[in-house]
Amino acid sequence: MFNFSKLLKVTAAVLAMTPCVSSCSDDDGPKINVEATGDGIFVVNSGNFGYGNASLSYYNPETKMVTNNVFQTANGQKLGDVAQSMKIHNGKGWVVVNNSHVIFAIDPVTYKELGRITDFTSPRNIHFVSDTKAYVTQLWDNRIVVINPSKYEVTGYITVPDMTMENGSTEQMVQIGKYVYCNCWSYNNRIIKIDTTNDKIVGELKVGIQPACLVADKNNKLWTLCDGGYEGSPYGYEAPSLYQIDPEKLTVMRRLEMTKGTSVSSLLTNSQRDELYWCGGDVWRMNISDTTLPATSFIAADNRWFNAMSIDPVRGDVYVADALDFTQTGVVYRYNKSGAKVDEFRVGIIPAGFCWK
Question: Which of 27, 187, 213, 318 has the fewest CB atoms within 10 Å, i.e. the most exposed one?
Fold first, then answer.
């Protein structure tokens, strides 16, 4: 089965031998006024490595209308090379663009740029500790970047021990109390614990190979989905697994093993945080109290390749992205809480993330 982590490494290695594509020029076209109506969802389309064809789409669930290329339309410039993730905080949308080494702050209604932060190695995700402090994880760097979002500037770094710049990887972040927990993903097997009062790493836990996702349930227990690596990986190859973790003690409470070779991604909770969802061929769903993996899937892939997912925090609808062949524009499918299809719509190339407005 196709393994995205392997694709990521192979493609990035090619990029290291070729010049980066310019992606932040100011002459990519005229600026046009567009606005996001209603409470909708942004789709982060990563685009192809080295091509600078990342984009941002916006979908209104009430009208079932999608608008593509909203950043480029509003700002007269392309979004960049490999859009990775997006968060909304303090009235701004923060779009992390991995291979362009930049985070854009945009108005989530007009899509217009409000500011940007640069000087990253390969940013992945952003977590806001406060209005004046946020953490940014990175790939191929052993440091988490500390920024001041109100001033659009880098203020410091958190160096992860026993990690080199060449194989460094930090990914998703979850905060419980004053501590931020982060999974170290690519060629790694750790969950680290950061004290936000002094930006120091105060603990770590080893789990399965390549913990790709991290969430917290309603009981403030952590869950991580380990993808198991890929066949031939120098770091190892094993069956994917789902771990439940006690964050206070940093101990494993439960480990549920999946079928070896299954490509897994996008571990999520519902708005009540009492159910887990993930992509593993099909879309799977289980209650946090379940002691075994579900026997049947929630949404069948039916020869599609689901690579990203989101859950409507109000309606409970499930949105699943299909990147198709990774060169043409992708598709997002919308299902209700019962698993019945509600809608489908085309977005940009390689839809890889979502953000609710």
Answer: 27
Which pair of tokens denotes residue 325?
Answer: 């062949």
Phi and psi at residue 195, in whole multiples of 5°? Answer: -85, 115
Enter the tokens of residue 129: 């500790």
Structure tokens at 236: 């190892």
As a whole number of angstroms, the distance between CA 74 and CA 55 comes to 12
> Count of H helices and E strands in the chain?
2, 27
Structure tokens at 356: 């609710």
**Order of strands, sheet of 251-257, starting from the edge strand that comes earlier in the sequence:** 211-216, 222-226, 241-246, 251-257
Region of 137 on the Ramachandran plot (φ > 0 left; ψ -120 to 50 alpha; else beta):
beta
254-261: long-range pairs with CB below 8 Å, 24+: 254/291, 255/208, 256/292, 256/293, 258/293, 260/228, 261/1, 261/231
Distance in angstroms (rounded) separating the CA atoms of residues 255 and 242: 6
DSSP 3-state of 4: helix
CA distance 93 to 114: 9
Helix (H, G, I), strand (E, B) or coil at 70: helix
Compute CA 43 distance to the chain's CA centroid, rounded to the nearest angstrom: 11
pLDDT at 140: 95
Question: Which of these, 169, 86, 179, 167, lies nearest to 125 by C-alpha position?
Answer: 86
The encoded tokens of residue 212 equal 């790709």
Q: What length is written for the chain?
A: 357
What digits encode the pLDDT tens for the residues 129-157? 999 999 999 999 999 999 999 999 999 99
Mean pLDDT of 291-298: 97
Are residues 132 and 153 in contact, defined by beta-carbon separation less than 8 angstroms?
A: no
Rounded Cα distance, 97 and 292, in Å = 37
pLDDT band at 39 (very low <50, low <70, confident <90, very high): confident
Cβ(166)–Cβ(188) below 8 Å: no
Three-class SS of 250-308: CEEEEEEECCCCCCEEEEEECCCCCEEEEEECEEEEEECCCCCCCCCCCECCCCCCEEE
